[in-house]
Amino acid sequence: MSYLINIKGRMYTRNLVPGVSVYEEKLVKQGKDEYREWTPKRSKLGAGLKKGIKNPINENTSVLYLGAASGTTVSHVSDMAPKGVIYAVEFAPEPIKSLIMLAKKRKNIIPIFADANHPEVYEFASKSDVVFQDIAQKNQAEIFTKNCLAYLKKDGVGVLAIKSRSIDVTKHPEVVFKQVEKELYKTFKILDMKRLEPFERDHKIYIVKFK
């Protein structure tokens, strides 16, 4: 069964909750299954997949998702991992309300109201196959590394979306990315990296594993 498909150049995920859209995205039928359109301009992971990164998520994948916001991308991860679990961490009070409502319909999502700077707060979360992070903070790489060391399985995959302007708006994005890569190389092997233009400006996504 395909949980992520392309139709006429557009990405879709198999809807875990048929008949229900999450953010007014398009729903289409393919045979007996329903799929939700995944717009890359609204998702760093979606943009990365559109740019050619390998999808690290299958039907049984456990994911620690940092920077879940209201759940736009989380919902597509939920579609792709119907037998897995998504620990969705968000710190802002308003988005977490939407995330909690989403989790009521999607039982594989566990919303966590916490600051990803302090991974010890959600120590009840199990080790995950994938750690994904989309957080617009200055110490993005540090937060990612701390969480991977705490929760990523030894053979797991880390996916990091970097917003260069949130780290240093005065420096050219490529300079910032080089700094991030230097920090990542201390702990990880970088398997792939892609700039996310034209979907996201001054963003880059990294796929890593432990050394």
Explain how this protein is built.
The protein has helices at residues 44-50, 72-80, 93-105, 140-151, 164-167, 173-184; strands at 4-7, 10-14, 27-30, 33-38, 62-66, 85-90, 109-113, 128-133, 152-163, 188-195, 203-210. Strands 7-6-5-8-9-11-10 form a seven-stranded mixed sheet. A four-stranded antiparallel sheet has the order 1-2-4-3, covered by helices on one side. It has a single domain (39-210), classed as Vaccinia Virus protein VP39 (Rossmann fold). By secondary structure, the protein is an alpha/beta fold. The N and C termini lie far apart (33 Å).
Topology, pairings included?
Layout: E1 4-7, E2 10-14, E3 27-30, E4 33-38, H1 44-50, E5 62-66, H2 72-80, E6 85-90, H3 93-105, E7 109-113, E8 128-133, H4 140-151, E9 152-163, H5 164-167, H6 173-184, E10 188-195, E11 203-210
Parallel strand pairs: 5-6, 5-8, 6-7, 8-9
Antiparallel strand pairs: 1-2, 2-4, 3-4, 9-11, 10-11
Brief sketch in words of this structure:
The chain is an alpha/beta fold and 211 residues long. Helix content is 27%, strand content 33%. The chain has one domain: Vaccinia Virus protein VP39 (Rossmann fold), CATH 3.40.50.
Percentage beta strand = 25-35%
Low-pLDDT stretches are none
CATH secondary-structure class: Alpha Beta
Mind telling me the C-alpha Rg? 16 Å
Please state the oligomeric state of the protein chains shown.
single chain
**Mean pLDDT level:** 96
Along the chain, the helix and strand elements come as EEEEHEHEHEEHEHHEE
Q: Give the total of beta strands.
A: 11
Helical content (DSSP H or I, runs of 4+): 25-40%
| Shape type | globular
